[in-house]
Amino acid sequence: MESLDDFINASVAAAHSAKPLKALTELLKKTVSKPDWFAEILPVTDDDEILLHASNELTIYSIKLTPGLQFPPHSHEMPVVIGFYEGCETNLIYKKQSNGELLQTERIDFEAPCVGQLDTDVIHSITNYGQATSRAIHYYLGDLINQPRSLWNPESNESMLFDNSKYFEYAKPNLE
């Protein structure tokens, strides 16, 4: 692969394979070990999230995460494969209690280069406890933009329909 178009085309082909999670994971394992390659092919921008591809079968984002911020709990309602090629990211995993409140049940730390997966029903928040900005490619196996999903207010624990502006508004300093 020599270009962003090549990477996107290979990603779309993997998403259409008989075992898309496995194929996308293998593709990211091959590419995350080359962070300079991503720097060469990705658009230069100050944005934290760059939409690279969107279809009914696959949404691809390039996401960077600033140290010291924690983003609120949210769901995706589809499987996710994440390839970390710079820095580190922590995922705090939650389960919804019978009263509707969230309880943190797990912590997963990712350090580049690595690939991780999140199941369809995962509720998580993300943070970067490191010193450097993390960078990762996120594959969502579906149309993330139009998928109804949830966001939780971290102060009130109130669930609402996901809203990207609220997602950034609810970001707060991490406490570790």
TrEMBL record:
Source domain of life: Bacteria
InterPro entries the record matches: RmlC-like_jellyroll, RmlC_Cupin_sf
Protein name: Putative metal-dependent enzyme (Double-stranded beta helix superfamily)
Lineage: Bacteria, Pseudomonadati, Pseudomonadota, Gammaproteobacteria, Thiotrichales
